[in-house]
Amino acid sequence: MVNETNHNLLNSINSPEDLRRLNVDQLPEVCEELRQDIIKELSCNPGHFAASLGVVELTVALHYVYNTPYDRIVWDVGHQAYGHKILTGRRDAFSTNRKLGGIRPFPCPTESEYDTFTCGHASNSISAALGMAVAAERKGEKDRHVVAILGDGSMSGGLAFEGLNNASSTPNNMLIILNDNDMAIDRSVGGMKQYLFNLTTSNRYNQVRFRLARMLTRMGLLNDERRKALIRLGNSLKSLAAQQQNIFEGMNIRYFGPVDGHDVKNIARILRDIKDLQGPKILHLHTIKGKGFEPAEKHPGIWHAPGKFDPISGKRLIANTEGMPPLFQEVFGKTLVELAEKNNRIVGITPAMPTGCSMNILMEKMPDRAFDVGIAEGHAVTFSGGMAKDGLQPFCNIYSSFMQRAYDNIIHDVAIQRLPVVICLDRAGLVGEDGPTHHGIFDMAYLRPIPNLTISSPMDEHELRRLMYTAQLPDKGPFVIRYPRGRGSLVDWRCPLEEIPIGKGRKLKEGTDLAVISIGPIGKLAMKAIERAEKEKGLSIAHYDLRFVKPLDEELLHEVGQNFKKVVTIEDGIIQGGMSSAVLEFMADHNYHPDFRRIGVPDKFIEHGSIPELFHLCGMDEEGIYKTIVS
């Protein structure tokens, strides 16, 4: 649990320059103070907890050895970067982390020069860092070092391997640090392995090695191919001694490790010894996610983002939700099990988010029918397509913003073949504190042009259940269901599972003065605004729940076009290309010209904040909808 500390050293650090003035023997105390600072702050201001605790020593060592921000440190997934933010001048502002107007939840170059690249999604660090390394070489910045920190499961992402493959064949001096915190590779033992590792990371050894290589090159005895062959031989010898293989040894990338990722003094020594080596390098660290906080070490998944907790006892402060509507995620998970019990063709797929999307419910009930494929969204979609092609009924659940990475897979591997894959887009719409990298606001716009797709969004839990039931019926083809993060509106959420006609919306309320067309749960806010406008302004307002953005309910839209001169559309998504664009296109194609107002996310990236705050900023809350209606 949290330990009492006076933070004497941390209080003296306002930038990495201050850190670099310390003696190396003081670094363990800096790590202890930094870890306790993170624990104390996140206990009352929730965020991503366990991942940042696991890289405290690495973070301190990096900023101690490298000349940041001139040297580039590229984080992969900003979950790890809270210590980095605190050490780079943002400690006083850290209490505003993830709050509206406060510091951002992930590293962002517009916030700090120490944040070299956007890193809300996984697996991009190697590619970005390689680009920076090549740029430094082209600009003659021979003394600039570039480091990519890859961790938190990011190696399962295809982009990481694409970057790794390119790094092995492109001249660069980049260092890749593999933060291995899930123990997928067992700890190695043995004196020879440790001897070889100490030898190959010693400064003297590497100086001799470099001078010998330079001499042989001048003599014409060491060309590029021979150099690569020697690297492969060296890696093979280390693998033989360590009694394990690694994927890097055949890629002409020098491999160092694995080593204890919580020995800050040793990490600093290794970084100092290898930072000037020529060619791409990989340093493999073993770390413990949640290090230094016992509950997080034991249950790192739960403590990934645990909410508020008592830093002394380690007890999570869980709000009483009795009598409240369930999360949409819970309804999805339980309904999927209900459907799977009756349809033995149903299987579930998730890319590394089983708990977040509630696929874990199916995993517990039917473990042989649920698949966590790791951080691999494109693979998840194509894997689902393969199963669908041979007779299964996949429910592929991916967060909306992460599905952006699988766009071609949807087109090429599912839609063209009209395969019956149910694509469940969790976290659709504005998601709150995780900010612009995680808002699921583009899906309707980017999916709507794809032929053969059915695209739907339920207003409430009953609609979600019925859409899921409809999607798994025969001959429905690829079927998209988008729904938001958080709670629905119905305490009594169970209902009979009935088919919803494809492309048919609902008229929720009659009216004569203007028509409101909404899609998804934001329709509940529209209902409140309509009720208020009618009561306070005497208006008569019709309300339609479109349900499907593709195919459109043409009968419903003809009714609106023929009977209303004023129309308001409301969606929890980007208005350019989204539902409102679809309605406008229909109106134009059929020569209807109503006075049109669109409510949704404007054409800009929306920062982080609570969902009510962000809805208010975008004019999508009850007050904003009311003002648009009465105007």
Search tags:
single chain; 26 helices; seven-stranded mixed β-sheet; five-stranded parallel β-sheet; 631 residues; 17 strands; alpha/beta
Structure description:
- By secondary structure, this protein is an alpha/beta fold.
- A seven-stranded mixed beta sheet has the order 7-6-8-9-11-10-15, sandwiched between helices. It has a five-stranded parallel beta sheet with strand order 1-2-3-5-4, sandwiched between helices.
- Helix 17 packs parallel to helix 19 (407-415).
- Mean pLDDT is 91; it is low at 183-197.
Going by helix content, strand content and strand pairing, the class is alpha/beta
| Rg calculated over all Cα atoms | 27 Å
Gap from first CA to last CA: 55 Å
Instruction: Give the low-pLDDT segments.
Output: 183-197
Going across the biggest sheet, name each strand in turn.
7-6-8-9-11-10-15
Overall body shape: globular
State the helix count: 26
Beta-strand fraction estimate: 5-15%
Tell how many strands the DSSP assignment holds: 17
Percent of residues in helices comes to 40-55%
The largest pleated sheet is described as: 7 strands, mixed
Kindly report the average pLDDT value. Answer: 91
